[in-house]
């Protein structure tokens, strides 16, 4: 697992490492700027030969379709989670704590736990193409 800073630079310098990931998760907010960056990230991932790429919609305000849904449809990507814009996440961050510890009953925490199970199942099923 590699948690990279936002932006595209790391795909260039870390390409040798990232080419061997089993699953690349692109975290995108439902904004134009974020989804443009998500689309560019997907393009770079394809150029690196990363077989399994999926989206996480972050800071989502509602349950309906949004810019991340549009990105997923345009790129043929799965949205593995839709994490709500939840003040509990900001409070946990300000406290320097995990939302799992700081706000275990918060909607964002439930979303993170579900995301973890979804990623685990996807990796176990080998959703991506065989590695080189």
What does this structure look like?
- This protein has 132 residues and is α/β, with parallel strands linked by helices.
- The protein folds into 2 domains: 1-85, P-loop containing nucleotide triphosphate hydrolases (Rossmann fold), CATH 3.40.50.300; 86-126, no CATH class.
- The chain is 51% helix and 15% strand.
- A 3-stranded parallel β-sheet has the order 1-2-3.
- The longest helix is centred in the C-terminal third of the chain and has 19 residues, at 107-125.
- It is globular and about 40 Å long.
- The model has no long low-confidence stretch (mean pLDDT 86).
SS summary, helix count: 7
Rg calculated over all Cα atoms: 15 Å
CATH-assigned fold name of the largest domain: Rossmann fold
Percentage of residues in strands: 15-25%
Share in helix = 40-55%
Class from secondary-structure proportions:
alpha/beta
Global geometry: globular
Any idea what the CATH architecture of the largest domain is?
3-Layer(aba) Sandwich
């Amino acid at each position: 697992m590699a948690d990279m800073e936002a932006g595209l630079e790391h795909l260039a310098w870390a390409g040798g490492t990232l080419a061997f990931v089993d699953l690349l998760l692109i975290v995108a907010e439902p904004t134009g700027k974020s989804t443009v960056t998500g689309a560019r990230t997907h393009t770079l991932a394809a150029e690196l030969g990363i077989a399994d790429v999926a989206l996480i919609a972050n800071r989502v305000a509602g349950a309906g379709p949004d810019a991340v849904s549009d990105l997923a449809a345009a790129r043929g990507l799965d949205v593995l989670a839709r994490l709500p814009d939840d003040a509990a996440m900001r409070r946990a961050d300000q406290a320097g704590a995990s939302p799992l510890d700081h706000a275990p009953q918060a909607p964002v925490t439930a979303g993170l736990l579900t995301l973890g199970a979804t990623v685990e199942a996807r990796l176990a099923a080998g959703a991506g193409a065989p590695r080189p």
